[in-house]
Specification:
This protein has six helices and no strands. With about 140 residues, the protein is mostly helical. It has a single domain, classed as Winged helix-like DNA-binding domain superfamily/Winged helix DNA-binding domain (Arc Repressor Mutant, subunit A, Orthogonal Bundle).
């Protein structure tokens, strides 16, 4: 795993959590009741309702797992970034991988040219990898 792949875990988990929350919220069981005595046609059978409920439970389990992983990894990565030797590298990696900002947005915030930020990003990733190589390889 590269330093970039390691740091991108935050973004991937955020995306997974968002998708799972949307999926969970869109799984609903709808049935109809007619009070005028007419029969309401429904394709929902007890088996279908059971399958929908089981699918929703599985989504909730995955969501809980991803939230736990996110809550465990973010403080570790933030501490690693904050412990870097060069402050500019730490700021850049924090803005990019924790805050999710683009390199263009970072160049504006840090008052450097886009080209300089691209170069500095590469340097920061190399510094991060050298410092945490053994940790990254074990994860």
């Amino acid at each position: 795993m590269t330093a970039k792949e390691y740091l991108l875990q935050i973004k991937k988990l955020k995306g997974s959590i968002k998708r799972l929350e949307e999926t969970r919220d869109n799984i609903v069981v709808v049935s109809g009741i007619s009070y005028d005595g007419e029969r309401v046609d429904s394709t929902l059978t007890p088996d279908n309702v059971h399958n929908i409920a089981m699918k929703r439970m599985e989504i909730v389990r995955e969501l809980t797992r991803d939230i736990s992983r996110y809550q465990a990894i973010v403080p570790v990565i933030v501490n690693q970034i904050n412990d870097m030797d060069k402050g500019e590298h730490a700021e850049l990696l924090y803005l990019r991988y924790v805050k999710g900002m683009s390199l263009f947005e970072i160049s504006e915030q840090m008052s450097f040219s886009y080209g300089r930020i691209k170069h500095m990003h590469g340097e920061a990733l190399q510094e991060f990898y050298k410092k945490y190589k053994e940790f990254i390889k074990s994860n």
